Amino acid sequence: MNSAALVGCTGLDILSALQAIPQKPTIYAIARREIPSATSNTKPIIEPISADWPDKLRNLATTPEVFLSALGTTRAQAGSFEAQRAIDYDLNLALAKAAKDSGAKTYVLISSAAVSAKSRFPYSKMKAELEDAVKALEFPHTVIIKPGLLVGSRQDLRLAEAMLRTVAKGLGAISKSWLTDWWAQDTDVIGRAAVAAALECSEGKREKGVWIVGQADIIQIGRQPRE
Question: Which residues neighbour 55 within 8 Å (Cβ) at sequence distance 6 or greater?
Fold first, then answer.
């Protein structure tokens, strides 16, 4: 991997996982605010207006070989489901199209487990619709990461999620994670799995097409040492 672009990925430790690659690829990190963990090979693209991000992606100095997105918000943060969909679906899809236009060969999306286009729950249906939409773009490699509950340091917690994460952390600590791996994953493991999957694609170790990375795969890929 010579270069990568990403959005929404600092909270899932994807940026730090990219920065840990020994070959030091050029990393274009698109964000609203300054990135505190920037390195010499990290090129922050700071744009407060997220609607302008697709154009920023199309006009990078070099074509990103890989594009990764963990972009998303909550209904509470957005103010309504319609506003949430504008980010989680509309902006994500616009960025995926911009990545395809710019020549990216591998697209990595952080989605969620157990989503369905037939779901009665708007969030689950929206996530499934996004998965279908990015598959239809037919990148040479499309990787969809489908974690369960996210365990880690996140600021956008709802009360129920915060309680579940507390339970997951406790169970993980006393069981060396085997009581939680099947329903909750650490954000750093998810981040390493996303980057490891992207590397496998860019290095020609995966057949072209769509690769669904479920929770068991996340644990296996995200915890294995990188050669």
Answer: 98
Token digits for 187? 């954000």
Tokens of 51: 């609607």
> Cα–Cα distance between 147 and 160 in angstroms, integer?
18
SS3 at position 61: coil
CA distances from 84 to 99, 102, 123 (A): 22, 26, 9
C-alpha span between 88 and 93 (Å, rounded) = 8
The two three-digit tokens of residue 186, written as one number:
């650490």
Q: Which amino acid is at 192?
A: R
The CA distance from 134 to 53, in Å, is: 17
Instruction: Give the tens place of pLDDT for each residue, 42-87.
Output: 999 999 999 999 999 999 999 999 999 999 988 888 999 999 999 9
Specify whether the CB–CB gap between 163 and 128 falls below 8 A: no
In tens, the pLDDT along 130-141 reads 999 999 999 999
108 and 198 in contact (C-beta within 8 Å)?
yes
- The gap from C-alpha 15 to its chain's centroid, in whole angstroms, comes to 10
Task: State the number of CA atoms in the 13 A half-sphere of 88 facing the CB.
Answer: 24
SS3 36: coil
